[in-house]
Amino acid sequence: MGEPDQLDPQSSPASRAARLARRLAPAAAAALSGVLLYVSFPPRTLWWLAVPAFAVLGWVLRGRTWKAGLGLGYLFGLGFLLPLLVWTGVEVGPGPWLALVVIEAVFVALVGAGVAAVSRLPGWPVWAGALWIAGEAARARVPFGGFPWGKVAFGQADGVFLPLAALGGTPVLGFAVVLCGFGLYEAVRLAVERRRTRAVRRATATVALLSVAVPVAGALAARTLVSDAAEDGTATVAVIQGNVPRAGLDFNSQRRAVLDHHVRETERLAAEVKAGKVPQPDFVLWPENSSDIDPFTNADAYAVIDAAAKAIGAPISVGGVVQKDGKLYNQQILWNPDKGPADTYDKRQIQPFGEYLPLRSLIGAINDEWTSMVRQDFSRGDKPGVFTLDGTGVGLATCYEAAFDWAVRDTVTAGAQMISVPSNNATFDRSEMTYQQLAMSRVRAVEHSRTVTVPVTSGVSAVIMPDGTVTQRTGMFVADSLVQEVPLRSSETPATRLGALPEVLLVLVAAGGLGWAVVAGVRGRRTGRA
User: Fold this and answer.
1) Which among 164, 331, 390, 394 counts the fewest CB atoms within 10 Å?
2) Where are the domains of the chain?
3) Using one digit for the tens of pLDDT, what is the confidence trace for 49-62?
4) Residues 311, 270: contact at Cβ < 8 Å?
5) Is the pLDDT of residue 45 over 80?
6) Annotated catalytic residue: which of 104, 136, 265, 399?
7) For the chain, how are helix, strand and coil distributed in percent, rounded to 5?
8) Model-level pTM?
9) Annotation says 347 is catalytic
10) What CA–CA distance (Å, rounded) separates 490 from 227?
11) Which of the residues 265, 347, 355, 503 is marked catalytic?
């Protein structure tokens, strides 16, 4: 009798399961690190989780082919964006939410491919961090005017890196976080390698350590750029949250009720001012869509707004939906108590699928109910909005515009001494959307060193100091008002002066790293063939 055949250990069920687990581990880690990045965003204050999220992503992508990086990057994007943007389907169902995420995750996938390609280069965390910002820059511009929601910077309102917003805006703030994450992974990897082989190049280790240390040191140094000093005196501002009859897409089916709620809250505040319980405001800020009835064509709407302005004895910035020359505008109206409407600002960055419908005929062919949600497209304004309210220059960035760097910056360069972000979040019920948008406004406050107010129809309304601190806020779906003396400022931060230049430079860095990786890959293949 011969000896029994030896079993191949590689063919046992346990070994096959282990191999399968090893294959699936990178994919699972990519998706879970995307979820970890989501958890770092408001309303949670776990901003620091963004660093390990990118550290894990660095582990997943380093040394991979660009094709593997593409797939792993897409999984990271899904893990991040699916929960982050779930609010987009609160009222319209999962279809638009899933479609948005599927498209936006493509940008993250392309970044993943790029990071995998540059991961073999010296100093790869720098190239990789710049590639992430290049991906964000692309997302903020295409398609349909872009969708910058979910920029890494917008998750850092409570974090140590926040002062960097004053240095170079959201691109520099986001780059610092991503660089720190990739640098952390590289530092850990090199420490493990050194223990195993004791052969780590000093230059490589230095770059890894600097990738972690420089962003933190830069953030601490940038704190000198953050100030709450009242350079141009102060103003007493009132923020009105009138609330809505009900949440959801049909909140404006009772448009007169929404207007009446804001009139009623303003008149209630006026009574408290008269009784000496609250200081007299210099001006009053109403939210976006606080009057969906056009006051220029409806005498009753004109009358109640005018009565509210007279009752409070101060100019009001009113959010209206206005027909002008046959076109529809999302408009802010400066309403004086003595002269009525005096100035207007037309929203410039209007929201696709919310305020206008791209590809209307195609979408109608898929589901005609979707086209009924936007019966008439809004038109865009073409000038920055800065109202002079009782001598104060108030810059206006209406709701969705707060996500766009240029839309906030040019109000400051046009003379804004403070900024207001009138918004309407009633459509999104009690979702995280309102907290994510509030965090954006906090970043903008630091970026441009301006007080920022956020008047919202249904909450959360807030007053934010130039250092990003929220000093007052309302609850959700309550009628309330906030009155506060706030500092006025006219100096410009480096971020305000530089504008898009930091982003352009980071995109060029990304392009340089990618070009280097391509050239190195081509030379490597030629050498291998030779």
Assistant:
1) 390
2) 24-225+500-529, 234-348+383-493
3) 999 999 999 999 99
4) yes
5) yes
6) 399
7) 55, 15, 30
8) 0.93
9) yes
10) 12
11) 347
